[in-house]
TrEMBL record:
Residues 259-431 form the CobB/CobQ-like glutamine amidotransferase domain. Keywords: Cobalamin biosynthesis, Glutamine amidotransferase. Gene3D superfamilies: 3.40.50.880, P-loop containing nucleotide triphosphate hydrolases (3.40.50.300). This is Cobyric acid synthase. Residues 6-230 form the CobQ/CobB/MinD/ParA nucleotide binding domain. It comes from the Bacteria. PROSITE patterns: GATASE_COBBQ, GATASE_TYPE_1. The active site is at residues 338, 424. It comes from Kitasatospora terrestris. The keyword Ribosomal protein does not apply. NCBIfam families: cobQ, PRK00784.1. Pathway: Cofactor biosynthesis; adenosylcobalamin biosynthesis.
Length: 505
């Protein structure tokens, strides 16, 4: 059965997500009805589909690249790490369990069955399905119950291409070593390589590519140049500094730059909420883990977190509570989103996420939070500053606002220069974002003027098109088509560990 391909990587953050998205956009441009798929994703960066299912944010981005609506089948298993070495298991968009690593291992055969059902369903409804692996396919300690890499590829008979990050160094060793560690059955499905994040003179790289082909019997299907400024829905916090700084603009529209400090919680979630701020001209967004990094900020943001009580304790241990309270008292802007909003209240009652019972909040908003066992997953629509706002909600904590709040703010509230909301994605709405930034600038005394014509949606589309260009211009698209339609070529050579031939001399 053709019509599918698995994109694996030599390491995490090698570029699997962007290569998958690039192939999806390239195919969509050809008029192909294509869908992304990732059997298992471990990420705190998630999204809510139109029918209320929670999936990895990267798969939602890939669906946008494919120009289709994201759905639960595109990411059947999502793992969300918590504060106690346990993860929440989200199956087909709904949370079903909290497990440790060994407990989860026992569930894998069942989860593989569900994943294969989802993949088969997508392959029946779409012309092509581009699958993304997780981590490395050569994690030999996990291979016997793998559901995302070669376990999936073997069960579904998928051809596999492997992406390596040359910017890290050692890409040839990583590729050869990945193949050498696989069984003969798994190696037979590996059909080629992608060298990612290349910068330099391609003539110097060419001999290495030929040697890799001779050593492994597999061709390099593309050498993809480094692309900066993408900030496209990273799955985890491995590269958060780049995610924010790459979106920062070169200069302000008004006389002043607006400085935004975002508290970098240990279990930070849905950090893509900051992407729209980072791409706004004249807004400088940076991460903060120390109190002094909040001092000159015009706006401090407390973002979402998978562990509200634990990360609130971390914030206090880092000495950041006092400067936050001083900001509020002085009328300097603070914004809390989801878990950050919960921290701003007076009391948190949590018998679900942290199971610690009651905890005192920062007391900057007149709210009380009680964690419920049922997770709230929603796509709300509302209005603020006279602008339409669409967002999405992912939380166990239910916030109650008392009558002393000065005004409502989306589903949350505002007191002085402190705002709180459970809505993720609100700042992606251009009119609302500009109105909110004008308010922050006015309160902060900054001569900052938001750009009147910046469209976050258009910026995302432009970046997805760049990924499509990457594949169209730098990949062997004819070879990709053959793999998608016909699978891995028969007779792919087996490469035993250490079997370096004459080319390696």
């Amino acid at each position: 059965m053709g019509n599918a391909l698995l994109v694996a990587g030599t390491t995490s953050d090698a570029g699997k997500s962007v290569v998958t998205a690039g192939i999806c956009r390239w195919l969509a441009r050809q008029g192909v009805r294509v869908a992304p798929f990732k059997a298992q994703n471990m990420s705190l960066n998630s999204f809510v589909t139109a029918d209320g299912a929670e999936i990895g944010r990267a798969q939602a981005m890939q669906a946008q690249a494919a120009r289709v609506e994201p759905e639960a089948a595109m990411n059947p298993v999502l793992l969300k790490p918590g504060a106690d070495a346990r993860s929440q298991v989200v199956l087909l968009g709904k949370p079903v369990a909290e497990v440790g690593a060994l407990d989860y291992r026992e569930r894998k055969p069942y989860l593989l069955e569900r994943s294969l059902e989802c993949l088969a369903d997508l392959r029946g409804r779409y012309e092509v399905v581009i699958c993304e692996g997780a981590g490395s396919p050569a994690e030999i300690n996990l291979r016997d119950r793998d559901i995302a890499n070669m376990g999936l590829a073997t069960a579904a008979k998928l051809p596999v291409v492997v992406v390596g990050d040359i910017d890290r160094g050692g890409v040839f060793a990583a590729m050869y070593g990945t193949l050498a560690l696989l069984s003969a059955q798994d190696q037979a499905l590996v059909a080629g390589w992608f060298v990612n994040k290349f910068r330099g003179d391609a003539r110097l790289l060419a001999p290495g590519l030929e040697m890799l082909r001779e050593l492994t019997g597999r061709p390099v299907l593309g050498t993809l140049p480094m692309l900066s400024g993408l900030w496209l829905d990273a799955e985890d916090s491995l590269d958060l500094t780049t995610v924010v700084e790459s979106g920062a603009s070169a200069g302000p529209v008004g006389a002043d730059v607006l400085r935004v400090a975002v508290v970098r919680f240990p279990r930070l979630s849905n950090f893509t909420d900051l992407d729209a701020l980072a791409q706004e001209p004249g807004v400088l967004v940076r991460w903060a883990t120390r109190p002094e990094e909040l001092a000159d900020a015009d706006l401090v943001v407390l973002p979402g977190t998978r562990a509200t009580v634990a990360d609130l304790a971390w914030l206090r241990e880092r000495g950041m509570e006092a400067p936050l309270k001083a900001r509020a008292a002085a009328g300097r802007p603070v914004l809390g989103v989801c878990g950050g909003y919960q921290m701003l209240g007076r009391e948190i009652v949590d018998e679900v996420e942290s199971r610690t019972g009651g905890a005192e909040g920062l007391g900057l908003l007149p709210t009380r939070v009680v964690f419920g066992r049922e997770k709230v997953l929603a796509r709300p629509v509302g209005e603020a500053y006279g602008e339409r706002v669409e967002g999405y909600e992912i939380h166990h904590g239910v916030v109650t606002v008392d009558d002393s709040a000065e005004e409502a703010f989306l589903d949350g509230c505002r007191v002085g220069a402190v705002w709180g909301t459970t809505w993720h994605g609100a700042l992606e709405n251009d009119g609302f974002r500009r109105a909110f930034l004008r308010e922050v600038a006015a309160v902060s005394g900054r001569a900052f003027v938001p750009a009147p014509d910046v469209s976050f949606a258009a910026a995302r589309e432009e970046r997805l098109d760049r990924l499509g260009d990457l594949i169209e211009e730098h990949a062997d698209t004819d070879a990709l088509w053959k793999l998608i339609e016909g699978g891995a070529p028969a007779g792919m050579p087996f490469v035993p560990p250490g079997a370096i031939g004459e080319s390696g001399k």
